[in-house]
Amino acid sequence: MAMTDEARDTRRRPSPPTRAGGGAVPGRRLHYSGYLWILPAMVLSVGLLYYCIIYTGYISTLDWNGSSPVQTSVGLQNYLDILQDPIFWGAILHTVIYFVGTFVVQTTLGLVFAVLLHSRVQLKSVYKVIIFVPVVLAPAVMAPVFRQAFSADGQFNGLLELVGLGFLRHAWLAESETALPTVLAITIWGSTGLTFILYFAAMGQIDPDVLDAARLDGAGNIRTLVSIILPEVQGTTVALLILTAIGSLKLFDVPFLVTAGGPNYSTEFLGTYIYRSSIQEGHVGYAAALSVMLLILAVSIAILLSRRNRQNSEAI
Amino acid sequence: MPKLTLRRSARTMVALTAGTIALALTGCGTSAPAGGDGGSATEGTVEWWGWVPEKGVAPAYIEAFNEEYPDIKVNYKLLTIDGYQAAIRPALASSAGPDVFDVASGAMFEQFKDFGVDLGPAAEEELGADWQSQVSPIGVSSFTDDNDELKALSVGLGFAGPVWINQDIFDEYGLTAPTDFTEWKEVCAVLEKNGVGCFIQGAQQVAFNQDTLQAIADTINPGLFTKATRGEAKWTDPDLVEALTAWKSMFDDGIMQEGALGQQQYPDANNGFLSGKYAMVQMGYWYSQYTKADTMTAAIGAAGVAEAVPFTTVPIPFPSAVDGGTPGALFGSPDYGLAVNAKSKVRNAATTFALWLSSATAGQQIVADSLADVPSLNGVSPQLSGLVDESVQLPALQDLITQAGTVTEDRLLSNADLATAIGVAGTTVAAGDATPAEAAKTLQAAAEKAGVTF
Predict the structure, then answer these.
(1) Domains and CATH numbers, chain A
(2) ipTM of this predicted complex?
(3) Which of A4, A14, B34, B271 is 20–30 Å from B171 (CA)?
């Protein structure tokens, strides 16, 4: 569409908004029309999302089972209870461990796989499929498989026996010390394919001349990885950092389906605890307060990460 | 942009916005008015949601109902027991919920009783003024609210306490059913020597742990566990500490399968027993359905066994935790009741269905014959036919049914926090994170916090 001279001029030198008349009229019309078009989406967002968030905030001040007509206002008591709740703090700790563990391992594995499959390897497509298949398998389908595989007489212990590591046998999901690492391992197995694909795509954007130049300058594999590839895929790493942080906070499916948050809350996360409190125990007010805490954490982390990202961009 | 077009766009936007607001408010709304006068009592389409009966059983119930009421179509939606409350709560809060829904006694009834209509007058109309004397008393008391309104009709009673054994495995190794823990350990040693698992429990699903704990406690001091749930005895009572000690010994002395805390009763323990990998499992009366060859064959197939062959399973009293002690008894409560949604537009047809299944002789007979529940209506007995091995199973089942008629102890608790605390006590002891005495002390404190008055 051809742009008029007036419009071009407005884009170059936007007029300050004025109360009436002159060149400000077209601009005001444009604003009005723009707001009108985004109104449905805004109402949907405000109606479905923010109304529900506000409603959750209101419920969090109640002692209510979610269905009874009797709703007792307790003010901020639910929040005070949460701060003294060891299960809540346990869930926070598990979330931190989960975030650090999955990010470090997934990122490393994904990067290594991507580097390997960008080199001269035969049957690349087969390897890509093998690495990516776990991503598309639903946790609900895999949960009984994992409970069996990591049981005392399961296939994982059988494998350990086979390779001479039988002394490491455990009932992996039944012991508080090993259940959380097992949940991490299951998640890493399920998500590394995604990390790999993102890194693989990002590495495809690196200019081959840069890599060739590095080789000519005598850089080895490790030096090339550290000094050329890692900085080039930094954007992907930051995206994965944010995705993993968000995923850690809202984690539910794997711990709920595989360990039900146990044994003894050793794999309890905020998502599973909210579900347990509201659905299974009928403490909907308390669960709403937990949800608000989760929201505060998520927003805080998002702000923190985006600020860091902006600072890094400005530094570059 | 021409004025007319802009105005039309504005109107479109306003309409879209209004629609969106309506949609949003509908999505977040929590109430809807009751629908009309409830419609006809003999025709209509009734939506029924539940976690029981099982998929293969429900069509038989509906088919039998339709022989008497051909103009009422019943659609059954089967949900998992774990996901039931998550599904039913928003459904009932909206106007799109089922017309009839399952409700368990205890904590679940406390949560959903307000969504049901008072079914007392309908029961009186169906059975007469003395209707309460014709049905199980606990079926009535468990579903009557504080206003003396009957909010659900008990379909069947569920009992727990026995251990089910694979008689074929016991016969193969010349074993007899254990009566106490010492004998139990000996049986397990023989089975282990022959590469067969002894006893399987999905201790990750703590509700079933409560059954086992109660069964153990009843062999030490009958009735004490129930008294503690009612606040008539303390959880720190030495006999209850001993029960927790015996529970721990099941994990340490080779009775329970290794890694029980990482497995669920359904599907893991159920599949482990039905596939013949384990010789014993702790399940309730509902397991009686697997004494029937056709039900057992289907269940074994569902457990992942190709070319399923039914085996003989029989209930035995829970072995005594004390040598020479009292064998375990049954404890129970209504397995489930049917509530009629107060917002349903076909309340009367829904009530007809709920009444037929819970109070009519034909409905209760088919419930009894499924062997999943003990019927709520007095005078109805199951037809015990089609058993895998009638000579062994028939006397055992008859004995179980007789025992069920004498039960005085509750199974499902109305206090969800107390149930959670019992579950935590069981798993902390089993995992070795607390001694039985410490766990009992924590449980006592949690029970007091949950509102139990001692």
Answers:
(1) 87-315 (1.10.3720.10)
(2) 0.77
(3) B271
